[in-house]
Amino acid sequence: MRYVQEFRDPKAARALLAEIGRVLDQIGATRESPVHIMEICGGHTHAIFRYGLDKLVPEGLEFIHGPGCPVCVLPMSRVDECVEIAERPEVIFTTFGDAMRVPGTRKSLMQAKAGGADIRMVYSPLDALELARRNPGREVVFFGLGFETTTPSTALSIQQAAREGLTNFSVFCNHITVPPPIKALLDDPHMVLDGFVGPGHVSMVIGTRPYDFIARDYGKPLVVAGFEPLDLLQSVLMVLTQIRDGRAEIENQYARVVPADGNPVSLAAIADVYEPRPTFEWRGLGEIDASGLRIRDAYRAWDAEEKFGIGYGAGRARVVQEPEGCACGMVMTGRCKPVDCPQFGTGCTPEMPLGALMVSSEGACAAYYQYGGARAPQAAE
Hints:
Blueprint: H1 10-28, E1 35-41, H2 42-50, H3 53-56, E2 61-68, H4 76-86, E3 91-95, H5 109-114, E4 119-121, H6 125-134, E5 139-146, H7 151-164, E6 169-175, H8 179-187, E7 195-198, H9 200-206, H10 212-218, E8 222-224, H11 229-245, E9 250-252, H12 264-273, E10 274-276, E11 279-282, E12 286-289, E13 293-295, H13 304-308, H14 328-332, H15 356-359, H16 364-371, H17 377-380
Parallel strand pairs: 1-2, 1-7, 3-4, 3-5, 5-6, 7-8, 8-9
Antiparallel strand pairs: 10-13, 11-12
């Protein structure tokens, strides 16, 4: 296929849906409950609702929305620490736009900016590097946030800053990794998961081999998927076929983009700049061992936690409770749907978000609100 339209062909979609229905019927002959497939990536969640795939798939299949949105799983304590750094008079704080409106316990970065903090939205850590070059008398801090997808660009920026001796640039590192939270979900006895649609963008960097433990140790299939409708439908069919056949393997539907061994340049940059944190807190999942990354000692001069004596760098990471009535943690772990949250569409909207899932471009609540027509009745009246 050469053009994106080919991945949205209605005739091909109908054929895939018919085959999905046929395989579901074969599986359903031996079970009473629906097949639960978790799409890990928030980008997949939005694609499912944007194209109405949740309504098109036959009965007997239920999508479970996973914790694959890095903004959504960021604990409120880390947002508070962002604000604390940003409000220092010597700091220019830079961030991707997704993080601007995520609420902390006191305020969001957007509210801190309105209060006078010098906070600037950037499209790349290289933009932050350029700000550091142009403002040698200021401390420029980049909010390093994201899974393995965005981690390499931050690592390469730190390497460039080191080559230039640009010590007024630093990174507040909140980069996290995908495999550990999947393991945490599989270890949860309350989770009912039959298979996974694996993340496409993350897998472009790390490849498919880091997921081998899912099939080997837990007997669950995972299929790495692209983001177009036919990608997702084909991936779901591949997962269902494995379940029907009694197999558990790691398969790659997105082979046109994702190599089995990942991107060697990106992986080398990550290995050079970062090391695993002993533990890191995830919103909704709690602390997960070796799930976060920290900057190695060789690059300590560019570590904002060390520079400003904050967070894990100061040995004082705070655990902050969710706002009362907010079900972000339950939604991110697949225990409930966004519309089951009492705040959905009333106390929590994209304009006035209570939780990160409503404000992030990859959040499940934002997907339901934007595409699903699944707003709370009070909000629709």
